[in-house]
Amino acid sequence: MLSxxxxxxxxxxxxxxxxxxxxxxVILGQSGAGKSxxxxxxxxxxxxxxxxxxIRSKENLxxxxxxxxxxxxxxxxxxxxNEIEFDDELILSRTLNIDGKSTIRxxxxxxxxxxxxxxxxxxxxxxxxxxxxxxxxxxxxxxxLDNFIGNEANILLDKISxxxxxxxxxxxxxxxxxxNETERNRLKEILSFQIQEIENANLVDGEEEExxxxxxxxxxxENIFEKVGGAVSKLDEGMxxxxxxxxxxxxxxxxxxxxxxxxxxxxxxxxxxxxIKDVAEILDNIVKNTDFDENELERIDKRLxxxxxxxxxxxxxxSEILNFLKETxxxxxxLENSEFxxxxxNTKKEKTISILTDLCEELSVLRKNYALILxxxxxxxxxxxxxxxxxxxxxxxxxxIGKRGFDIVKxxxxxxxxxxxxDLSKTASGGELSRxxxxxxxxMLDKENVATVVFDEIDSGISGQTAGKVAEKLNKISxxxxxxxxxxxxxxxxxxxxxxxxxxxxxxxETISNAEIIxxxxxxxxxxxxxxxxxxxxxxxxxxxxKLLSL
Length: 551
Prior knowledge:
551 residues; six-stranded mixed sheet
């Protein structure tokens, strides 16, 4: 249950703290005073999308803090699983700065938005006039019926979902084995072609690099022959070669072994001689093996093009292509031996479809039985809301099997006896939809397991005796859960246990909204304003307000 709400720098509110009671909390105030800001603040602290346009003008940060007590076991379990300590109290705090950065704390512990939403999932249920749109949306009707059924439907839905997942896995396995015979034969042809194309290439891991080096060498062979041959000539050919000079020099020094410096020089010349002799021999072999062959160059070029083409199809390297070949051979082998496996999978698929169909049939029967109960309960609720003679029905059609079963559900409605039943969107007025929404809310409260319900002008479009019945219904709901209600209807407001007045004023050139608890004659005056509509309320309106409050 919401016990207090603190708001700072949100829209027109500068600083405001409101305490709420257990029963029926009524929020009053003139149109435009800022009552909806309280809803925005609650939504924000519970995890709604952070909108920095809500930050009060000229301020850099807004903050909302909400305190809840009498926590349910489910919320306590969620707090425990997130390692958040609590003492039967939940304190939510959320800030947003002008740069769009938000901070969230739960009982003082920093959390992410996902955790906040998990914790606040069943804290407050918002029910406003715009929720009628959700009610007339046929896509929501099946979920509303399943929510009404509760745990029985959830158990079957879990089983159906699991079998749908099983069926999906089986179909995936069947597809991997080629599916039906035609698809399998087509896939075998594709795999056989891929294997043959790669095997015909006789690829060797690492050959691409060798081919590129050889291509580069042959491309420059004429230049290599000329330049390297010249180098060999200078190093080791003729009387004036480097090796001849070194040999003569070291020979001339060989007789001076008694002189250390000369002997060292002689040894170094000897090492240089053999090193250069070795280099000359290597270069000479390169020259002898250098043969410019245009045919070989063309062959290498074609080979590199083939490898490039295979890389585009089967992998980024020869190693990857060879690995693809291995996997493709295994896949083809599995396909050729897949008949037994396919028969087994198809049998398993048929059995799964049979189980799934039975579960969907069972769920459909359950839904149809509960639909009759829902119809009667809705009619009873609407009777109490001054809609006698109203007819409400849940229509079923059969669709394809899926995780929600095969039922397609649509609510149809007739406001007057003998009138043709039509879609809600085509036949129900705004006031009728509001009462229908309130009827659903009254029926579903024990299913939704929430402690606080916020009604935002749920009585819109309703007046007279009907408004009185709506007031009674809201008051009855407040006996079981905390109700926070924004209203402009005097008879609804008069049922309140606590009254919160939202006002707006200009102060030093600024517009400021504020909310405060009012009591006694202040409550009488505000309800009289709803009756009278004038700035200065009449005595008659005041007397009528007192009479309403005494009911």
